[in-house]
Amino acid sequence: MTYRIVHYINQFYAGIGGEEKADYAPEVREGVVGPGMQIQKLLENDAVVVGTVICGDGFYGENTEEARAKCLEMIAALKPDAFVAGPAFNAGRYGFACGDIAAAVGEKLGIPTVTAMYHENPGVELFSKKTYIVATGDSARAMGQALPAMTKLLHKLVMKEEMGPARLEGYIHRGMRKSFFHEKSGAERAVDMLLAKLRGEPYRTEYEMPVFNKIPPAPPVKDLKKAKIALISSGGIVPKGNPDHIRVSSAESYGAYDISKLEDMTPENYESIHGGYDREWANIDPDVVLPLDVMRELEAEGVFAKIHPVFYTTTGTGTAVAHAERFGQEIGELLKNAEVDAAILTST
Amino acid sequence: MTREIERVAGIPVVQIATIVPIMLTVGTNRIVPGVAIPHPTGDPAQGPEGDKKIRREIVMRAFRALTTPIDEQTIFEK
After folding, report:
1. With a cut of 0.85, is the ipTM above it?
2. Is the entire prediction scored with pTM above 0.90?
3. Contact A305, A342 (CB under 8 A)
4. Which of A176, A242, A336, B1 is the most exposed place for a label (fewest CB within 10 A)?
5. Which residues from chain B sit within 8 angstroms of residue A295, using beta carbons?
6. What pLDDT, in 10s, does the model give residues A286-321?
């Protein structure tokens, strides 16, 4: 069986033009165009590039939904078994387009997708979890290495061969971990790593720490006396009985509870379900994690205007960064709509 | 979570927690160190009155953090 491949490129690699043609609307051509020629050659007889979809980078970036829908329609009509886009090197808009269309094709058509770009291309951060992205050099000078690398991965995917880890296969880490049995225990491997480190020898961590973004600080509250302040916690403080079944660790949800009539947190009304610290004190008095009693006093004294009636809470232990960020985004949206002026977030 | 709330809502968010390096790593801008991991906003060993006094002091410090203009991640110590 010969598998069917569809290739996506921009106006430049299709030979249509440079920046002056970046507004070029999506178009489909039969067979290979531009770098597709070499991809076809490398695929030999196992797969054939049946068509090439071309779109200007500016058009894709400015009319993303329309471009995505049109390209998807053209791609689907060609009934591909796999999809390849680029390589985009360090071209930001081209990288965005390649990643976006590859992710959309993977999601809508359920077929394997591959693209390729430089590791600093913004398309990497946006799409590396949704498609295979082969790491390339930063410009078309690296075409000679990029095409064989991405075609090799494409070939592997289309032939349904087992995919190895990112580091060995040459794609950018997709944030997935596979379980397997190692001949050495974790303790032995950790000691080996430590010894290598002490000897100044190379070693490789088995669990890379995520890199977090930083943001410029928000401006301060101008007049505390007029401020509505929200209380938030990742300390696992929930209404007694944990009515929404928030997980004790690795939480995938948060709770929103009306505290407008609550003066104080007591063992009768609230408790801690957090699986990552000793809950003895929090269960005797939840205020040691979420200072509601003191906040009510300061509210009555007029130090600030009002406690936001809704309290948001989850457990922050083993919680995936992606979930924590999503909680923050959703809560942030809610606070913004409720015209809250500031928030106090407690963590354990 | 703190960072994303601040970013999306565009309001200052002060985080009270005990392990300051983690707050620095995850991008919290206004940091108030807590008393201890299991009781960031209190100290039960000080008895009910002492516990509440410490809690009030920490919350007041959180207010100071929320009303202070800052240009970078800042730890509000005593």
Report:
1. yes
2. no
3. no
4. A176
5. 59
6. 999 999 999 999 999 999 999 999 999 999 988 888
